[in-house]
């Protein structure tokens, strides 16, 4: 098998991300995604099949491992780091998001509004009760986040369209990775995920998206996504208080 021979010739394995739920390894030009929950992998595989934008080639799947070919180019950026990508690259990411959102809906449902609101209440209470964040910071961002908690027309969303998941080469999208959260959802959530911590590029993304959007709702999703993420990040060994990351996003709303 050619793939097995290729992997056998590689001398180094890079751990891209790892925690108790899943891990991603890079072995040469192959990414190995190991996930204990095969439902997430099922979603990822089907979403990449249905998506009208470039995605990694699926090389093989042998649960709990999914092997994907590496994408050419580099990521649009990283949360907490300045992006060196051009305005054209950010606009290309916005255009890709629009293409995805205009595609037929995937057959599985997304998150319900009432479930999202309940989870937000619980996370805010946890942040305050455990002294993770000042109460006024949580309360202010909880009020901002309310603008996102409104009915939306569902579209095909990536569900975790952070900049590290968007790859480009010469300002052209070469692929989007990590589709396990894909489903029916709010288009503005994807745009908020894409611009989280990089508000200076929101105009470029919206220009590429090509239609008017409610910027206040995007800002509300910044607050909501950050409030929901902090406990998970802390429990999985990540630092949401690192410069430019989720805590700084919340502080910027004050």
TrEMBL record:
SUPFAM superfamilies membership: Protein kinase-like (PK-like) (SSF56112)
Superkingdom per UniProt: Bacteria
Record has Transferase as a keyword: yes
Domain Aminoglycoside phosphotransferase: 52-210
Alphabetic keyword roster: Transferase
Keyword GTP-binding annotated: no
Recorded GO MF terms: transferase activity
Listed PANTHER family: AMINOGLYCOSIDE PHOSPHOTRANSFERASE DOMAIN-CONTAINING PROTEIN-RELATED, AMINOGLYCOSIDE PHOSPHOTRANSFERASE-RELATED-RELATED
Protein name: Phosphotransferase enzyme family protein
Source organism: Micromonospora viridifaciens
